[in-house]
Amino acid sequence: MRFIKQKFIYMDNASATPIDISVQKDMTQSERELYANPNGIHTTSVKARACIDGARAKIARALNAHTDEIIFTGSGTESDALAIIGTINKYSEIGLANIPHIVTTTIEHSAVIENCKILERKGLAEVTYVAPEANGIIDPKKVEENLRENTILVSVMYANNEIGTVQPIQEIAKIIRRFRKQKQTETPFLHTDACQAMNYLFTENIEKLGVDLMTFNGSKIYGPKGSGVLYKKRSVILSPIYGGGGQENGLRSGTEDVSRIVGVSKALEITNKIKGSEVKRLEILRDYFFTQIPNLEKSAGCKIHINGDRESRLPNNINISIDDISSELLVIELDANGIAVSSRSACKSTEEESSHVIHALRVAGDEFNSEESLRITLGRETKIKDIKKLLKVIESILLKYKNWK
Q1: Sheet holding 317-322, edge to edge
Q2: Neighbours of 3 (CB within 10 A)
Q3: Does a structural domain hold residue 157?
Q4: Using alpha carbons only, what angle is made at residue 278 by residues 272 and 282, rounded to the nearest 5 degrees?
Q5: N or C, which end of the chain is more exposed by having fewer CB within 10 Å?
Q6: Per residue in 265-284, pLDDT tens?
Q7: What is the rounded distance in angstroms from the CA atom of residue 82 to the CA atom of residue 155?
Q8: Cβ(165)–Cβ(313) under 8 Å?
Q9: Cα(60)–Cα(192) distance, rounded to whole angstroms?
Q10: Residue 338 CB neighbours (<10 A)
């Protein structure tokens, strides 16, 4: 007996993107040919080193940065940790009169929040967590209000990984530059986690963006998992967070993974080439879903709420809350129908508590009471027919459980 295979629709691209075929091809070639330790002096090692140098130069050009400002890490989390802990450790070594102070937000990725909490618990830093407005956007004035004489670092993500809201990074950067000028010092530095932003937002001129440190990774830009990058402006001095052989200018010890470095550089190159057209295409798909919400509410007899600002959000992000139904149940039901989505950040999905991002919106005064949420993140393979099927399946699930009540 023959069965018709159901097409699998992947809409969890904020968790991880599939690897681009061209990226995979370049990685396979480098794995086969550049297997030597790039820190040796024989010919095979020298070739591996040259490949790393080429990848570094490629990323530097993509950001309009210097090659010595690009640091390769093993993930976005490690990049965030190096930026945060590395900055605080360096200024702790200097022996400041006061404990270093960090300003961050309550809606950061756990890679930022948890590393800030580690520093707090150890008594190595004071941390102020700025809450978002009800639309999921940080008010730059609140960042400014919390700057102190001993503020060493401000860390605000470029785009939120759950609700997709785009933060006013350039405006925050202007505030920090003005504060430095008044204080006549080089700090605070501005760090941004741009893992979700690289595919869709302006990153082509790091100086114009105004950040001193920027994190991104391969797994969100159709590159390899286990690859991360930290942009570090030349004027920023960091301490390594562990010791070893002193690779990456002494900041990230360990034998470099040539194939993953090749992969992340190739992925960024492709992303920048198609960014403009892909943003426009995905905005159409995202907005089509939003326009269909009233019809879905009417047919299913329930209230659906869009989490986060409708306009200032990533073009591929849809985050909704639906009355009286568990988001995890929706994820399971959608999966059974061949559609992959998530209920929150995959980095926290094994924990029982609700999303800290959605919780922050409700605390800020968002009128919707539920802290359940469904995150749908579109990608390069998403088509309008996939959105239509998603809407149809959601409707059938809601009607199914409505009849059971």
Answers
A1: 304-306, 317-322, 374-377
A2: 5
A3: yes
A4: 145
A5: N
A6: 999 999 999 999 999 999 99
A7: 12
A8: yes
A9: 17
A10: 14
Bond before 315 cis per omega within 30 degrees: no
Q: What is the pLDDT of residue 85?
A: 98
pTM of the shown model = 0.96
Per the structure, the complete domain to which residue 383 belongs is given by 275-404
Residues 78 and 207 in one domain: yes
Q: Are residues 91 and 150 in the same domain?
A: yes
Dihedral angle computed from the Cα positions of residues 222, 228, 232 and 238, in that order, rounded to the nearest 10 degrees: 170
Pairwise CA distance, residues 353 & 201, whole Å: 31
Catalytic residues: 347
Q: Are strands 9-10 and 101-105 parallel, antiparallel or unpaired?
A: unpaired
> Across-strand partners of 229?
72, 216
* Number of domains present in the structure of the chain: 2
**Given this model, what pLDDT does residue 1 score?**
40
Which whole number is the average pLDDT over 205-224? 98
Residues 348 and 257 occupy one common structural domain: no
